[in-house]
Q: What sequence folds into this?
């Protein structure tokens, strides 16, 4: 009698927890596959990144010379890459929209670059969209950190080599 209850309990526990374990392992595999795909793209561009960050299926990095911001995001397995020269950026802004006017829930979070050149269109980098990601993963803190890093890199004077 005791052994049958023990076997039944083990079967019940395996039945209950196996889907959770399966989906956790599948999620880790998808994340590492996306990170590997992004790393392969980064090796091809030849830029050395001083500061970089991976999250979900996205990457943002600031080059070591503080002149270039690169953003790569995977949409349906295809990479969408933006490489922005900070020498041509006039200013950058955080664009935030909520689900309702007084609601706390975040709907969309973008980092917008406005360029010095009049004819060049603005570029928006999407950090969070409720339609593609159902839960937030500290995106507000992440975008504020990167906004400060980019503003700091834009205000730093770049060293110019003087010919002798």
A:
């Amino acid at each position: 009698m005791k052994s049958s209850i023990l076997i039944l309990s083990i079967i019940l526990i395996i039945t209950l927890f196996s889907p959770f374990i399966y989906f956790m392992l599948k999620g880790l595999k998808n994340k590492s596959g996306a990170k590997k795909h992004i790393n392969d793209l980064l090796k091809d561009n030849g830029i050395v990144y001083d500061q970089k960050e991976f999250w979900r299926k996205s990457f943002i990095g600031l080059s070591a010379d503080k002149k270039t911001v690169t953003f790569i995001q995977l949409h349906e397995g295809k990479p969408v890459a933006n490489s922005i020269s900070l020498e041509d950026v006039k200013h950058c802004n955080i664009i935030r929209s909520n689900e309702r006017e007084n609601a706390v829930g975040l709907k969309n979070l973008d980092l917008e670059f406005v360029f010095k050149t009049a004819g060049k269109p603005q570029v928006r980098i999407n950090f969070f969209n409720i339609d593609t990601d159902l839960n937030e993963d500290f995106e507000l803190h992440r975008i504020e950190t990167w906004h400060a890093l980019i503003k700091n890199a834009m205000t730093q004077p770049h060293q110019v080599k003087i010919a002798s």
Observations:
- Helices lie at 2-45, 139-155.
- The chain is about 35% helix and 35% strand.
